[in-house]
Amino acid sequence: MKADTLTLKKLFQKDVRYVVPIFQRPYVWNQEDQWEPLWEDVRNAAEHYLEELAYVEEHMLSTDNAQAHAEERAGTHFLGAIVLKQQATAAADIEEREVIDGQQRVTTLQLMLSAAQRTFEAMGYRPEAKRTYRLVHNDYADGVAVFKVWPTGLDQEPFSAVMRGIDDDDETHNGSAIVEAYEFFKAQIDSWIRSAPEERQMRRRVHGLETALHGLLETVVIDLGTMDDAFVIFETLNARGTPLLASELVKNFVLQTATAEGIDVEALHDDEWKPLETKWWRDEIRQGRLIRPRIDVFLNYWLTARTQEEIPSQKIFPKFREYAGDKEISSVVRNIGRTADVYSGFGKHDPWSPTGTFMYRWDVVDAGVLTPLLLYLFTEPDDRFTPDGRTRALEILESFLVRRMIGRLTTKDYNRLFLELITRLEDDQEIPLDQHIAEYLAGQESESRNWPDDAQLTDALVNLPLYRLLNRRRLRMIMEALEDDLRTPKAEEQHVERKKLTIEHLMPQKWHEYWSMPPSEDWVERVAARDRTLHTIGNLTLVNKRLNPAMSNGPWDKKRTALNEHSVLHLNKEILRDWDVPDWDEDAIRDRSRQLAGRITLLWPKEPRPGEIA
Questions:
Q1: Residues 422-438: pLDDT tens digits?
Q2: CB atoms near residue 557 (< 10 Å)
Q3: CB atoms within 10 A of CB 469
Q4: 460: buried, middle or exposed (CB in 10 Å: 19+, 13-18, 0-12)?
Q5: Does residue 161 sit in helix, strand or coil?
Q6: Residues whose CB falls within 8 Å of the CB of residue 453, separated by 6 or more in sequence, listed in order
Q7: Which of 6, 22, 53, 568 has a CA-to-CA distance to 603 between 20 and 30 Å?
Q8: Does the reported pTM lie above 0.85?
């Protein structure tokens, strides 16, 4: 047995087959829990490398090895571990290994690499496509041996179809997570590259992505020999011990320090720490890719807010010991308790109040990195805000997050951005907090921090295929906000029920049967234009789960009738009122996208830059 840290290039470039044994479970990774975080990591790695490359090119006298220097400065990103077992093969055969652990990760990496390779090729970046092709196909191999990875059971046919080049209108494997993963990465890669403002920057992004995929992502590969007992090693690697939690180390330190200071330890424990020992605090929750007890997650956020430093999960206790070392321990524990009350109360606000609405949307956007700032804002006294300023501060933060989410802008710098904001709020006690937040965010100019203006937001809403680029929760949240905006106090229900409705395409994804276009000289261009608008916001609405399949792929007159007879949503009433047209086509979709964009810019307004007139 040996263990190595390998880049994807080193893992996949040689001729090798990684075969998933039949007893392994099928492919189950999904967009929200795995694909999106992985893509964020890859995109951030590429963008960080490009930033370092620009720095090297600007500041170094010689740029002969600029790319190598930039890669070294950028560092690598760890993806996790893979356990392989060598298989006995003849000298003339392709080397083969069984994937004992990490089959979901290996399969996903191949799908992402294939999506990148085909996107590069479609855009005309042939050298990059050719180099990436070597990471997904074995040279001089026949049949399924051409694939670097071979999944198990029912995943084999869709995997083969994707890796050989599935057509966009091929519906053979609809519903396959394999196909959906490939299409997700392909859409994200295409969108990120094309969002560069000019061809030179697009080419640079292609180079950055290729560099990240080939050399900046690393995995620990544990390679078992043919005689090693894979099951014994697997059990050892996954054995569940009971190490002390960070919160337990903190608690021990607190009580020991209190004893040394002559404080009544039992009273301190019962009054301040015992409330943090309930089941709710010990429940495991997700923080990024990690799953940890809620108390540990909270202590991480609390300590980040107090120190204005980014603190890795494994550094919570040593950082706490450093922070509390020169402070009165009872005061520190009281602050923890007061802040814990705020944290546990995040989910207890009236769901339809401004604060409750923010909490719901914040959860959907999944911006946990904002938590230290929210803890700070909710524990500061009211006199640090203008009247209703705490609500205004939340609206400002929500607008910043939602506008960047719609524009598919990177989240890689959010940690530093919001920690710097806390530091500024601490240092300048004269300006009201809500005003300070608005001016700080509106003043950001870099791409990783820019608060998109109305023109940028409108462009994204009209042109981006948001149905493919946003997960369903986020897209539904936007549509729910639009529905609520149409309701008045005279409506029977002022708010739409959250999390229940489904997203429906007005022009169906399978439009060719009932929505065909007459032949013309520009027929190909018209089809392409229709496909570009199909997944934009103007072609989407909300319906209940029963109405969705009933409408399915039917013609426009059937859909209008169904909406008119069964839907009580104001979004659909608006469609029937404002688009009383015989045909629902790409022009109508773009018009509606612009209309919805106008309302979305008002729902999530951007503050003027410092010195500008609102």
A1: 999 999 888 999 999 99
A2: 12
A3: 21
A4: buried
A5: helix
A6: 606
A7: 568
A8: no
